[in-house]
Design goal:
The complex is a heterotrimer of chains A (157), B (779) and C (270).
Chain A lengths: L1 E6 L2 E6 L6 H8 L18 E4 L2 E4 L12 E3 L13 H8 L9 H14 L5 H7 L11 H15 L3
Parallel strand pairs in A: 1-5
Antiparallel strand pairs in A: 1-2, 3-4, 3-5
Chain B lengths: L18 H5 L15 E7 L5 E7 L1 H5 L3 E4 L7 E2 L13 E2 L5 E2 L5 E7 L2 H10 L1 E6 L22 E9 L2 H6 L3 E8 L12 E7 L4 E6 L4 H11 L7 E4 L15 H12 L5 E4 L2 H7 L6 E9 L5 E13 L10 H9 L8 E10 L13 H19 L3 H8 L8 E2 L5 E2 L4 H12 L1 H14 L4 E12 L18 E7 L5 E5 L8 H13 L6 E5 L19 H25 L6 E4 L2 E4 L7 E2 H10 L13 E6 L5 E13 L6 E10 L7 H21 L29 E5 L16 H4 L1 H13 L10 H14 L1
Parallel strand pairs in B: 1-14, 12-13, 16-17, 22-23, 29-30
Antiparallel strand pairs in B: 1-7, 2-6, 2-8, 3-7, 4-5, 9-17, 10-15, 11-12, 11-14, 15-16, 18-19, 20-28, 21-22, 21-27, 24-25, 25-26, 28-29
Helix pairs in contact in B: 9-10, 9-18, 11-12, 13-14, 14-15, 16-18
Chain C lengths: L6 E3 L4 H11 L3 E4 L5 H6 L7 E4 L9 E4 L2 E5 L4 H6 L4 H8 L4 H4 L4 H7 L5 H9 L2 E6 L2 E6 H4 E3 L2 E2 L6 E8 L3 E7 L9 E8 L2 E7 L6 E2 L1 H8 L4 H11 L10 H19 L4
Parallel strand pairs in C: 1-3, 2-3
Antiparallel strand pairs in C: 4-5, 5-10, 6-7, 6-10, 8-9, 11-12, 12-13, 13-14
Classes of the chains: A alpha+beta (157), B alpha+beta (779), C alpha+beta (270).
The site of flavin-adenine dinucleotide has 31 residues of chain C, from strand 2, helix 2, helix 6, helix 7 and strand 10.
């Protein structure tokens, strides 16, 4: 089936079987391999992308459902001139990643979190990020990074 | 030789080299690989734990145009983990089960199709007939039908460690404590499951295998041997790997199958991405152990003797190449931990069952053995009316005892345990936690308890220390190649591998400082057996010590070449030259004379300027082997609140102090510790792989296999004691220590809070509630 | 972990949904949020031949006040329930469902139709005496939530029926308590207390095949009993089964404790 969607601000088209997940279409048909698959049953959060601005598990959506939708993946976080998104920068600065496999999903969840809970404290961050599993960091660096990015945002430049 | 660099990168938390690509979605994981004509593989797995295979029919699947491989195709290839230990019963692991299946999830066939969806469709059409056999799930119950004919009692290995006079010691002891402890089967579960892409080049008889492995050189060696190929014709590439934790330090039948199938389909790249259900079923499990412990103490709490009987459930196969000995031997070798002990007897055994094979998982056996050992102190302290901290202090190995010969004959070179403990108690503010505990007791508020664990971790094992399991290889050394390119920048081809530990970064730091160039001028290539000479890979917290040591030695060798050449060019004495931040100067002069880049240009492009007797090029390759190992000390202390109504624990504070020796990158060191504690907490409280009595895994998805999230893991306080080790960089491994404490700390905290002994893990709400309930019934 | 093949249909109206389901002859499935259906399809434990995607059926996504109740469209996402101010109990219950990325997709209709005994919304539906509107070949019928749930993950819905909306009456007072292993996990026990008029209802999830009213506990309360007495009564009238997370006595104890907490939160005397 033909699917037309906007991915990271650009028009995209894929021709897929109905059963193909959005995650597989992004990764294999559009070459956006930043979206990772850690469980394919909705629990780990590695595949989290923004669909029309809201976080969604790309493993639990079929690509055909995204027809006409706007999808943002980790590849779309950087701004046009290639500078890192403040969250990406904070993850680097605060050692919010080790193997980096959970990172794309973490970043997308955190991006939405900071939009909806500006100034989130550590406890809120811990609760809201609980839908994404990281096996490496023990979460310390991730919470540090999200907190720092949130604080930086709240402080006008 | 150069003097001390003024602006070295070691010891600073420089920006990690790997992060830019990983935070932008440009990581290079095996599953990201897309090659022309690539086909996808799905494995068909046994739905039963133990059965004879009585029929295999692939015709319907083949009729749909897919390619199918079954046990008959590769029946001549077998993975046989070897050990020279006298009691070891060697058994084989087939590529695809044929004859019989030994655990639910064992691969029995594979389908190759245009995409993974179609490959799974094909699996549904392959018919396998099973004639069930009685399964054995529990390692301490006698089998009805052995897993392997070679071991009728299922015991694949048994060994007794002894020292001193155990029976006499117990006979004369003031206090003997006894506990029967069972730890919960769980596993590493890296966020990226296993993955491989194999392609066979028939014209040159060459195999390329991208594999999400911790041990690419071992994989190359073993694949070459199993497939009867010249080792140089096998290239193994481990690009970015999404976590390993030991699970990926194993060569699996799926890996071998992928390579064999690729050879059968020349020129067609075959890709397999393990899904989470497969991972939970068939990647190695760990920590399914029973410790029957007895400890003898004198009246003031001095530990006199330990008498232990340890059974480890090793699953259906002796894991390749580490053998079924990996967990039991580690348990027996390090059970006494950082404590002085003269009289010791521990019989350890590895018992096969119809469950997934057990293999290395971060901390190998010690999260369980530390729990067993610390339980002895907690029980003895309660009996003797001693404080949990005090009884440990009386028995711990002190710096003046070092080198201390442990009863298993390993030699502890640390002795910094009490120092770690003191610092941990400071950080948690022990007196005030005790005061709060008393206050709550008096006020009838929710009880809190304090748990304590001390541990020693043998890291960076050289050839003498890695002798334990008597495997046909010794993992004591790694190689490194360092090349200064013609533009003066440096490329390192290191034998280390990384699954998140940041080795690209630390190796670059070591080499930058070792030569005297900036961190940014160094690029590190890892994980490709065609690029690096040799490395055993990531396990046993060995890489910082061994791979790091190799990088350091090699950098020094290259620096020596660089300075020889520079000395010739400058007509100066080598001894007077210094190289700092890529510039070479003469001692006593304010300005540098020449840059590394200019010297490098001569080395490669301007041979006419080469001084007499100096070869072109600036490159060296060196090995490093520390011969022995370096013990890393650790202490963990936590305060935990218990909800008496639900049995739930809330960790109020968690402190860990470790001696990592010299911290090359403090942030990475802390990250390793925090991550391993989180895994330890997961194992202590949540994670449990449960089989039913038929041998079916009951926890086959992440809805049932509970890994802790940011909401469960507490804020951690990490402290350091930095006692440089006796190796060139002064480092001790830190990759695993964190996992060693939580079982003991959390079970100990419950004991401290409620006076109940937790003998079976995990410390789940129901377990705590049942114990409390039993206590109330008794009262 | 990839789904078996299916045909995909995206009807524009409820009528078309029902017709498509009917034509599929029992082999069709509605796809709403997909947060329960897609995982089981990926594991090939469900393999509908036709998937009827209702996500673009208009008019089913709102939450509206309707007298002394709130009418929730079948496609109202958990995130919307959580954010709406008109039915605080629904908002509280929705906040316990999974995680943000689950709640942005998962729907009210899907949760009720899926009928997981550990799910939050079915318990609230029974606790509030919700009315479920169901469209089928013969038009729309209404049924009581208690009649919807017939057993473990089974409902009285026919293969060609679709939930279109649910009317949740608003209790005058309420209390919610849940016991789960981790943040966002399905509940081991959910207890919901609701007050309508002078009647206190106690409803439990996770302790039986379908959400159940704890009548014995309610009687204790009607007779002026304390929260503790009612909790004990609730724990004795249920027939939980042992599982990975605990024994029967443990589950009884957790049910009692959650009932006690929900009652206290409602304002009932300990
Ligand atoms: C990681 C994770 C955690 C979760 N945690 C929780 C939790 O804690 N609590 C909880 O309650 N749920 C939880 N869920 C499930 C989630 O709430 C689902 O959204 C919900 O159970 C089903 O809603 P859905 O819209 O996604 O339905 P779908 O998955 O689309 O459908 C589920 C079933 O309902 C049928 N159906 C859907 N809509 C209708 C309709 N309008 N009429 C008739 N039939 C219909 C479908 O055919 C299917 O059989 C979790 C899910 C995940 C992946
Ligand atoms: S891969 Fe989608 S949630 Fe795990
Ligand atoms: S960084 Fe490895 S899983 Fe999070």
């Amino acid at each position: 089936m033909d699917v037309h969607l906007i991915v990271n601000g650009e028009r995209a088209h894929v021709d897929v079987e109905p059963r193909r997940t959005l995650a597989d279409a992004l990764r294999e048909d559009l070459g956006l391999t930043g979206t990772h698959l850690g469980c394919e049953h909705g629990v780990c959060g590695a595949c989290t992308v923004l669909v029309d601005g809201a976080p969604a598990r790309a493993c639990l959506m079929f690509a055909v459902q995204a027809d006409g939708a706007e999808v943002t993946t980790v590849e779309g976080l950087q701004d046009g001139d290639g500078a890192l998104h403040p969250l990406q920068e904070a993850f680097v600065a605060h050692h919010g990643l080790q193997c980096g496999f959970c990172t794309p999903g973490m970043l997308m969840t955190a991006a939405h979190l900071l939009d909806t809970h500006p100034g989130a404290d550590r406890e809120t961050i811990r609760a809201e990020m609980a839908g994404n599993i990281c096996r490496c960091t023990g979460y310390q660096g991730i919470v540090d990074a999200v907190e720092a990015a949130g604080n930086a945002r709240d402080t006008p430049a | 030789m150069s003097g001390e660099p003024t602006t070295g990168s070691l010891g600073r938390s420089v920006r990690r080299k790997e992060d830019q690509r990983l935070v932008t979605g440009h990581g290079r994981f095996v599953t990201d690989l897309e090659l022309p004509r690539m086909r996808h593989v799905a494995f068909l797995r046994s739905p039963v734990a133990h059965a004879r295979i009585t029929g295999v029919d692939t015709s319907e699947a083949v009729g749909t145009g897919v390619r199918v491989f079954t046990g008959a195709d590769f029946a001549d290839v077998e993975l046989r983990a070897q050990s020279a230990l006298p009691s070891y019963v060697e058994t084989g692991q087939p590529v695809f089960a044929h004859g019989k299946v030994r655990f639910a999830g064992e691969p029995v066939a594979a389908v190759v199709a245009a995409d993974r969806y179609r490959a799974e469709d094909g699996c549904e059409l392959v018919e396998i007939d099973y004639d069930p056999l009685p399964p054995t799930v529990c390692a301490w119950e006698p089998p009805e039908e052995p897993v392997h004919a070679e071991a009728p009692d299922n015991v694949l290995l048994e060994r007794t460690f002894t020292a001193g006079e155990v029976d006499e010691t117990f006979a004369g002891a003031a206090v003997v404590v006894e506990r029967d402890l069972v730890t919960n089967r769980h596993s590493g579960n890296p966020m990226e499951c296993r993955a491989g892409v194999a392609v066979w080049d028939a014209a040159d008889r060459r195999l390329t295998f991208w594999n999400g492995t911790q041990v690419p050189h071992i994989v190359r060696n073993m694949i070459a041997e199993l497939m009867d190929l010249p080792e140089g014709n096998v290239r193994v590439i481990a690009p970015d790997v999404g976590g390993g934790f030991g699970v990926k330090a194993v060569l699996y039948p799926e890996d071998v199958a992928l390579c064999l199938m690729a050879r059968a389909m020349p020129g067609v790249p075959l890709k397999w991405t393990e899904d989470r259900a497969e991972h939970l079923l068939a990647a190695t499990h760990a920590r399914d152990h029973r410790y029957r412990m007895r400890a003898a103490f004198d009246g003031d709490g001095t530990l006199l003797g330990i008498d232990a009987d340890v059974t480890c459930n090793v699953g259906a196969y002796s894991v390749y190449p580490w053998t079924a000995g990996i967990e039991p031997l580690m348990a027996g070798g390090l059970l006494s931990g950082p404590y002085r002990l003269a009289h010791y007897r521990a019989t350890v055994r590895g018992v096969a069952t119809n469950t997934a094979p057990s293999g290395p998982y971060r901390g190998v056996a010690r999260p369980a053995s530390v729990y067993a050992m610390e339980a002895m102190f907690d029980s003895a302290a309660a009996r003797l009316g001693l404080d949990a901290v005090e009884i440990r202090r009386r028995n711990v190995i002190m710096p003046e005892d070092v080198p201390y010969k442990m009863p298993s004959r390993l030699v502890d070179d640390s002795g910094h345990y009490a120092e770690c403990l003191d610092k941990a108690l400071d950080l948690i503010d022990y007196p005030s936690v005790r005061a709060e505990q008393e206050r709550r007791r008096a006020a009838g508020e929710a009880p809190i308890g304090i748990g304590v664990a001390l541990y020693n971790e043998l890291t960076g094992l050289g050839r003498a220390a890695s002798a334990g399991p008597r495997m046909p290889f010794r993992t004591g050394h790694d190689a490194c190649t360092v090349r200064i390119n013609a533009d003066g920048r440096v490329t390192v081809f290191s034998g280390v591998t990384s699954q998140g530990q940041g080795l690209e970064t630390t190796v670059a730091q070591i080499v930058a400082d070792g030569i005297g160039v900036t961190y940014d001028d160094v690029d590190v290539r890892i994980g490709d057996t065609d690029a690096s000479l040799w490395g055993f890979g990531a396990f046993s917290s060995r890489q910082a010590v061994i791979g790091g040591g190799a990088a350091h030695r090699t950098a020094q060798a290259v620096q020596a070449k660089l300075l020889d050449l520079a000395a010739g060019l400058l007509e100066a004495s080598v001894d007077d030259l210094r190289v700092v931040d890529g510039r070479i100067s003469v001692v006593g002069e304010a300005e540098p004379r020449i840059s590394v880049a200019e010297v490098a240009r001569v080395a490669y492009l301007e041979s006419h300027r080469l001084p007499e007797g100096i070869e072109p090029g600036l490159e060296a390759t060196r090995f490093y082997d520390p011969i022995r190992g370096a013990f890393a000390a650790g202490a963990q202390v936590a305060a935990v609140e218990v909800d008496r109504t639900t049995g739930e624990l809330t960790i109020l504070s968690y402190v860990c102090v470790e001696d990592a020796g010299r911290a090359m990158h403090p942030q990475i060191v802390d990250g390793q510790i925090a991550g391993s504690i989180a895994q330890g907490i997961g194992g202590a409280l949540y994670e449990h792989l449960v089989y039913d009595t038929d041998g079916n895994l009951s926890t086959g998805t992440l809805l049932d296999y509970l890994m802790p999230t940011s909401a469960e893991i507490p804020e951690m306080v990490i402290g350091h004691v930095s006692r440089p080790a006796a190796n060139p960089l002064g480092v001790r491994g830190v990759g695993e220590g964190g996992t060693l404490g939580p079982n003991a700390v959390l079970a100990g905290a419950v004991h401290d809070a409620l006076g109940i002994e937790i003998d079976t893990l995990p410390v789940s709400p129901s377990r705590v509630w049942e114990a409390l309930h039993a206590q109330e019934v008794r009262a | 972990m990839k789904c078996a093949p299916f045909d995909y249909v995206r009807p524009a109206g409820v009528g078309e949904v029902v017709t498509t389901l009917r034509q599929a002859g029992g082999d069709g499935k509605i796809l709403a949020g997909g947060q329960s259906l897609v995982p089981v399809m990926a594991m090939r434990m469900a393999r509908p031949s036709v998937l009827v995607d209702v996500n673009r059926v208009p008019g089913l996504s709102s939450v509206e006040t309707d007298g002394d109740a709130v009418r929730v469209g079948a496609l109202a996402r958990h995130a919307l329930l959580q954010a709406q101010p008109d039915h605080p109990l629904l908002a509280e219950a929705a906040s316990w469902i999974g995680h943000t990325a689950i709640r942005t997709r998962g729907t009210t209709g899907g949760s009720l139709a899926h009928a997981d005994p550990s799910a939050e919304l079915p318990v609230v539906a029974v606790a509030t005496g919700a009315t479920v509107s169901v469209a089928g070949p013969d038009g729309v019928r209404e049924l009581d939530a208690a009649e919807l749930f017939t057993g473990m993950m089974t409902t009285s819905l026919a293969d060609d029926e679709m939930i279109t909306s649910v009317r949740f009456p608003r209790p005058s007072r309420w209390g919610f308590a849940e016991f789960a292993r981790r943040h966002g996990d399905f509940a081991l026990v959910t207890a919901v207390v609701t007050e309508f008029g002078d009647e206190l209802r106690v409803t439990l999830g996770g302790v039986s095949a379908a959400p159940m009213r704890a009548h014995a506990a309610e009687e204790v309360l009607a007779g002026g009993g304390s929260a503790r007495d009612a909790a004990r009564a609730a724990s004795e009238e249920i027939e939980p089964t042992a599982d990975l997370h605990g024994s029967v006595p443990f589950r009884r104890a957790m049910a009692a404790e959650m009932v006690r907490r929900a009652l206290v939160r409602t304002g009932v005397e300990e």
